[in-house]
Amino acid sequence: MNHAFPIHYIEPVFRPPSEANSLILPVTNGCSWNKCTFCEMYTAPQKKFHVRNEQQVIEEIRKASELLAVRRVFLADGDALALSTRRLIPILQAIQEYMPTVQRVSSYCLPSNVKNKSVDELKELADLGLKLVYVGCESGDDAVLSWVNKGETFASSAEALNKLAQAGISRSVMILNGLGGQALSEQHAKNSARLMNETQPEYLSTLVVSFPLGTQRFVDAYPDFLPLTQAQLFHELEHMLSSLTLNNTIFRSDHASNYLVLKGVLGKDKEKLLAQIRQAIERPQQVPLRQEWQRGL
Q: Given this model, what pLDDT does residue 264 score?
């Protein structure tokens, strides 16, 4: 990191793939929940959750504006929307003041972050530039969510997604393929599709549950977990997509964790995407699948 760069980062820093060209602006460190048994992103000691000093963040915005022409800003870390509306407003106002070229501000968002924010508060944040949030729902199945200690339910996720929609904030939802293991695969797929159908997000992506630091932390809390084989992952994905009745949702399954890259719009591309999945199930040798060494978190 160039020491002259005015923004202070505590490594590692994470952001969605689609924010590769955005200015990453930490307003918190770590994740306010950080109890999900499958997640290793914020487990390092230096990533303990805390809220960054507001004046320091605003000064970093001012200084960065003197160096960069910024079009997009991603508020880091794990769930910037853990901040109250009162704390978020001055930061968004500073971005507007010092970076008038910014077209979109985005953030990760836990469904629980939205619970204590009214639709009017969310609309105020949207008016100040917060146009997109990445919501890690992971599953729509209550049993899966409970087993992995997500701290959410189908109902809490649906309520948050619908509230965001009412406020005019676009939602990019993430579902974890394979999160329920073999025992809960069918209901994980079914209820994840049901959650999407009831909320109609603008964007939907699937990632494969992965454990680059090993499975011990997960297995300790989930001892009966049997991971899905590659073919079973495809069957689960087929089940979920078959159950989707989305009207105009951009779908991506192109994260580095995925074996099979899929891109389309649901529902117009639903049959095409299902055909690609079925080919991967029936004739995997004829499909350009990622090899294990090519995959990552």
A: 97
